[in-house]
Amino acid sequence: MESPSVPPDLWHECKARVGKTIDGKYKLVELLGAGTTGAVYRARNEWVARECAVKVFHYEGQHKDSLLQRFIREAQACNRIKKDGRTHPHVVDALDVGRDRETERFFLVQELLQGRTLEAYLDQQPGRRMSVPDAVSVLGPVIDAIACAHEAGIVHRDLKPENVFLVDGPQGELPSAKVLDFGIAQLADARMTRDSELMGTPEYMAPESFFGAKDVDARADVWALAMILYEMVHGASAFYSATDNMFQVMQRISTSEPPSLVEKGLMRPAVWSVLRRALQREAADRYATARALQEALDEVLTTF
After folding, report:
1. pLDDT per residue over 99-133, tens digit each?
2. Which residues are catalytic?
3. Model-level pTM?
4. End-to-end Cα distance, the chain
5. Taking burial as the number of CB atoms within 10 A of a residue's CB, which of 25, 103, 107, 301 is the most buried?
């Protein structure tokens, strides 16, 4: 396995951790991936004989403190999102966070998931498309998880197919989704980004997000969820193509209308009306929260 996204010396450092034990109990079994901020391992909690995923933070640059705050914030956000008094079943479970006594590296322990990202799943579908009922069935639990996040005062801010993980289910059944990566989430009681800071992935960012973190609230997540649903049904983004740079994407999102999926024969007008409202350029014209989006979809799909 190779990782072109990180320098060779850092990659070798990550590989060298395999076989070592973090904090006296998490044995790192396999390197699953690495980036400039940290590395993810398949691991085993030797105390309770349970497999898990361990993220090890290793960034040493000038923005270390702010990136470390985001690293730790992921565990905080995941554990605040509840459904029926328990951690939401469609949010990746953060089990532990700490600092290794031997290396002094910070680490985050999460449940180990088997499956693939929504992005990878779509790549395996004909035309990268799903029917409206199947797309809503897969994305519905994600919308509910984000609705519960909004009710807990949390805005994800980086929803995209790569941050939705599909856990394999029984053969012939659709996979079950889990929301990943709350690292740049905005918590109601802790603003950890500068007001002018641009956060997120441009092709899934609401127009107001381009003007900085101060303008972002739950309605930006509503936009992102609608963009993901659009892509699942259409097979491609409403505003992005592979040849675009970031500024071209931002310009198109800020000035263009999404092509109608009704005219393309992919969606009924009633469903499109919900999606279209969620993709209004003015945040005030969108659904206020993911819960409102969920309820609107439920209403139009009951007679689908």
Report:
1. 999 899 999 999 999 999 999 999 999 999 999 99
2. 158
3. 0.88
4. 45
5. 107
